[in-house]
Write a structure and sequence with these properties.
The structure is a single chain. By secondary structure, the protein is of the alpha/beta class. 54% of the residues lie in helices and 8% in strands. It contains nine helices and five strands, in the order ααααβαβαβαβαβα. It has helices spanning 2-24, 26-43, 46-62, 65-77, 113-128, 147-158, 173-178, 199-208, 230-252; strands spanning 92-95, 133-136, 164-166, 190-194, 213-217. Strands 3-2-1-4-5 form a five-stranded parallel beta sheet, with helices on both faces. α6 links the parallel β2 and β3 (164-166). α2 (26-43) packs antiparallel against α3 (46-62), α4 packs parallel to α9 and α5 crosses α6 (147-158).
Length: 255
Amino acid sequence: MVRVQGNKDTVLANFIYVIKEILQLPIFWLVISILLLCTALIFFNYKAIVMSLLTVAFWSLSITPLGSSLFLGSLGLINNRADVCVRKDVNSLILMPGGLSWRPTIDGGQLSDWSITRADRALEILRVKHNTQVILPGGLGRGQYSEAELLKKYIQSKLDISNVLIGKKSKNTFENLETLMPMISKDKPYFLVTSYWHMPRAKSVADKLSIITCPVVTKIEIDWSLIPSYEAHWHSKAALHEWIGLVWYKVKGKN
């Protein structure tokens, strides 16, 4: 009986996994949009046709590198703060984690491309300001290492630096900074390093927590390709996540 139950659980888990994978496919939502458009055309509902056409256009663009670049870039447009910190009195750096890679690894943990890009941006500062302290929010963990531990290993593999502090585990932008409060001073400025599209939310949370920050963002990149890709789909989802996050944090009073 236990084996039967186990088999049922396995089948259910596999079914849920397959459904999740289908929902992640770049083409899935485009197909749904086209079906909605066909339905609207059959019943000739003008408003439904217009909305369906806009939806098809949105999803068609969102699965292309150009579309995802534009969606992420739209967040950069509202970031009216300088992307290079010009203050001379900053000697501590907060590096925001950018997630773990979806690629499977033996120990269950590998930095995402976004995390590596942010870390490389931080390294540019650390090579110039050698005595800068590095503060890493704990972030998420999958397997043996957390995001902060992986970032620490990556930075130390590129540069001989020992003054690295790691915060408690955290699962979102607000918690990333909130859990650092016992480790930082409200009287001193900090470099705040993150992606250009993530800075609006990160900076607003830092301001809410009264953390004095000097923003440093990654380079804005535009990919002009119109060939659909899985990566572009994820980038568009990240842009949507950030826009929703900005609104949600505003509603919850977190920024």
